[in-house]
């Protein structure tokens, strides 16, 4: 329940019904758009893109800012083209993070409480690279996610699925000299949202990343291979190019799987190219907290 | 000349609130300390409504125009200026930072603060800049500002408050839509 005075300003289209008994069986909103309505819109956009590709358009690599099937984007996308700018001084650098900022144990989301969280324990690891394939060393990676039942520890998540007293779902780490990161966590569940009737998000982990230049900053989502919800999800489908969408899907890696302990997923992240003129020291050094 | 194709971004979604904010995230230095100013503003959608679920990051030089490369933004010691901060807007769409006026990074350059914007319903992060309103000459010579028509240019320039702080509102869409920046393509 929203108790603040401005509650009326909330567009609560991503909130699910209140977690009251039988909320899962609450009467369906007859006025709500159906998945079929949304899927038809997504399909039409996909077909138009396929035709544009045939006509020689360059493949798209990022989500569309204007993607109406994700209803919350309608009033929140710029209508004017992004203005090209050459990055200047401050934009050619990133803030520095190091071991003062992040404790090594923050990369294990399964040990933050007094007991083991419920669900399927997983290891997610990979590398953060820039567009030239250079490792992004000594930089901050932040993640957040739902628990195994598909519930976030967030006051606005009222999905009537259980909270897990042993799982918060927040992790951080600093990349190694080779750009590597590694988290131990629980496989998140899919969860319902209110974009349309019977809308469900594919299981995902939110990732926040910094590069060597502030212009490389991104926030994104990692998905799991083979999810049946991919074709139905307006957020995943806001990336209209299949190759680009595939870049958000981790690979199951049996070599990474730890016997009798955790399943392993590998996911590398590529940031845009650095615009800075690199010195040899920068290119090979660890931009961590060692002064 | 990038050799690898970048990973796509995705919306920050509605549930970043227990993950991205941290203690003193919006205090680049302690409120009330020497040289500190308040930077504040409201984030609006295309209907002119303030939105309660956006989160902004600022990244700026210090008051002398130096780019700072010091760790400690996430666990602030209260003395080290790291140049970076994060602020989620409140229920009324207002964000607040405590920071310093950025200095010019080169003699004659117009000082600005770099901004990254994230919000539920915003498919990918956006970049923009906040310029200080003083020094008309430097503003007129700025490569970005001088490439914009006067109406759009004004969306990037903060107002100076009576208390010495800065106010800068952000409009994702519609009338006076903020200029957002693309650093890829061209001139590479």
List descriptors.
heterodimer; A: 291 residues; alpha+beta; 5-stranded mixed beta sheet; 3 helices; disordered N terminus; B: 188 residues; mainly beta
Can you give a write-up of this model?
The complex is a heterodimer of chains A (291) and B (188). With 291 residues, chain A is of the alpha+beta class. Chain A has 3 helices and 12 strands, in the order αβββββββββαβββα. Chain A has helices at 35-54, 242-246, 280-284; strands at residues 83-84, 121-129, 140-145, 170-174, 180-186, 191-193, 199-201, 204-209, 218-223, 251-252, 263-266, 269-270. In chain A, the strands form 3 sheets. In chain A, strands 2, 5, 10, 11 and 12 form a 5-stranded mixed β-sheet that branches. The longest helix of chain A has 20 residues, at 35-54. Chain B has 188 residues and is mainly beta. Chain B has one domain (16-171): Protocatechuate 3,4-Dioxygenase, subunit A (Sandwich). Helices cover 5% and strands 25% of the residues of chain B. Chain B contains 2 helices and 10 strands. In chain B, the strands form 2 sheets. In chain B, strands 1, 4, 7, 8 and 9 form a 5-stranded mixed β-sheet that branches. Chain B has a 4-stranded antiparallel β-sheet with strand order 3-2-5-6, with no helix packed on it. The longest helix of chain B is centred in the last third of the chain and has 6 residues, at 136-141. Chain B is globular and about 40 Å long. The model of chain B has no long low-confidence stretch (mean pLDDT 95). Classes of the chains: A alpha+beta (291), B mainly beta (188). Chains A and B meet through strand 1, strand 3, strand 9, helix 2 and strand 12 of A and strand 5 and strand 10 of B. Strand 1 of chain A pairs parallel with strand 10 (181-182) of chain B, so a sheet runs across the interface.
């Amino acid at each position: 329940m929203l108790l603040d005075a401005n509650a009326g300003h909330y567009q609560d289209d991503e909130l699910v019904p209140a977690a009251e008994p039988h909320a899962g069986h609450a009467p369906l909103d007859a006025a709500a758009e159906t998945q079929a309505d949304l899927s038809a819109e997504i399909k039409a956009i996909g077909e138009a893109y396929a035709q544009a590709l045939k006509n020689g358009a360059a493949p798209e690599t990022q989500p569309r800012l204007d993607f109406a099937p994700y209803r919350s984007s309608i009033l929140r996308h710029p209508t004017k083209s992004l203005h090209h700018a050459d990055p200047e001084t401050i934009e050619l650098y990133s803030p520095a993070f190091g071991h003062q900022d992040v404790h090594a144990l923050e990369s294990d989301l399964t040990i933050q409480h007094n007991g083991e969280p419920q669900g399927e324990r997983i290891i997610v690891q990979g590398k953060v690279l820039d567009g030239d394939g250079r490792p992004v060393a000594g930089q901050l990676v932040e993640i957040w996610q739902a628990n195994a039942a598909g519930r976030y520890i967030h006051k606005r998540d009222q999905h009537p699925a259980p909270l897990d007293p042993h799982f918060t779902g927040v992790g951080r780490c600093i990349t190694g000299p080779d750009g590597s990161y590694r988290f131990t966590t629980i496989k998140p569940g899919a969860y319902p949202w209110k974009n349309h009737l019977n809308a469900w998000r594919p299981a995902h982990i939110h990732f926040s990343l910094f590069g060597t230049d502030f212009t490389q900053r991104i926030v994104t989502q990692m998905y799991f291979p083979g999810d049946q919800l991919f074709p139905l999800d307006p957020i995943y489908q806001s990336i209209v190019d299949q190759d680009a969408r595939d870049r958000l899907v981790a690979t199951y890696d049996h070599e990474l799987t730890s016997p009798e302990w955790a399943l392993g997923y590998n996911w590398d992240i590529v940031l845009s190219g650095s615009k800075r003129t690199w010195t040899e020291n920068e290119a090979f050094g660890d931009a961590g907290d060692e002064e | 000349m990038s050799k690898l194709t970048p990973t796509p971004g995705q919306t920050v979604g509605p549930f970043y609130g227990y993950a991205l904010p941290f203690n003193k995230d919006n205090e680049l230095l302690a409120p009330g300390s020497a040289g500190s100013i308040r930077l504040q503003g409201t984030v609006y959608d295309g209907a002119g409504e303030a939105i309660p679920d956006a989160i902004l990051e600022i990244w700026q030089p210090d008051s002398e125009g130096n780019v700072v490369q010091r760790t400690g933004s996430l666990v602030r010691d209260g003395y080290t200026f790291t140049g970076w901060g994060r602020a989620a807007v409140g229920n009324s769409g207002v964000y607040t930072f405590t920071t310093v006026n950025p200095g010019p990074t080169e003699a004659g350059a117009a000082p600005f603060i770099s901004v990254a914007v994230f919000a539920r319903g915003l498919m990918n992060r956006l970049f923009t800049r906040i310029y200080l309103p003083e020094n008309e000459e430097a503003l007129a010579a700025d490569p970005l500002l001088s490439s914009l028509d006067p109406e759009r240019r004004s969306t990037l320039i903060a107002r100076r408050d009576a208390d010495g702080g800065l106010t800068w509102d952000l409009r994702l869409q519609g009338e006076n839509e903020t200029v957002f920046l693309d650093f890829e393509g061209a001139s590479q």
